[in-house]
Amino acid sequence: MSLLTKKLLFLCVLTLLLLHNVIGFGTHHVILTNDLDNNLDLTIHCKSKDDDLGVHLLHHGDTYGFKFRDRIIGNTQFYCSFQWTGEFHHFDVYIQSEDSKICGNTCNWSVKNTVICRTTSYEGYICFQWH
């Protein structure tokens, strides 16, 4: 087999592996739960550089989730705004360079009045102050 044929075969195999997510870049999920006190409704608006996922109203205890694939080149990042009576906050719910390792396939978020908390098998339950 010639060197050119070997290179072409290698490129074909590599392309197929990437297309079938064998080499990382798999599907990720972000799940957000309304855990606000006093049964408050929560309005969520999530975006990335390329996608606007729209506005969603969550009643207390409801969840909203979305799935996506990491970018092969660059850094996938999703951020959301959170609004309820008298409050408005925003938070980065997924940053590829950090969360692809920490969350694995799923980042679970609990939205609370004073903090937002993430649960993963890697780090357990950890809360963050609002930005």
How does this model look, in words?
It is found in: Secreted. Residues 1-24 form the signal peptide. This is S-protein homolog. Its main location: secreted. Keywords: Secreted, Self-incompatibility, Signal. The chain is α+β, with helices and mostly antiparallel strands and 131 residues long. The protein has one domain (26-129): Immunoglobulin-like, CATH 2.60.40.10. It contains two helices and nine strands; from the N terminus they run αββββββαβββ. It has helices at residues 3-19, 96-102, and strands spanning 27-34, 42-48, 52-58, 63-69, 77-84, 87-95, 106-111, 115-120, 124-129. The strands form two sheets. It has a five-stranded mixed beta sheet with strand order 4-1-7-8-9, with helices on one face. A hairpin with a 3-residue loop joins strand 2 and strand 3 (52-58). The protein is elongated, with a radius of gyration of 19 Å. The termini are far apart. 18% of the residues are buried. The model is unreliable at 19-24 (pLDDT under 50).
Features:
131 residues; alpha+beta; Immunoglobulin-like; five-stranded mixed sheet; four-stranded antiparallel sheet; 9 strands; 49% strand; elongated; S-protein homolog; secreted; self-incompatibility
Secondary structure layout:
Layout: H1 3-19, E1 27-34, E2 42-48, E3 52-58, E4 63-69, E5 77-84, E6 87-95, H2 96-102, E7 106-111, E8 115-120, E9 124-129
Parallel strand pairs: 1-7
Antiparallel strand pairs: 1-4, 2-3, 2-5, 5-6, 7-8, 8-9
Pfam families: Self-incomp_S1
Protein name: S-protein homolog
Signal peptide: 1-24
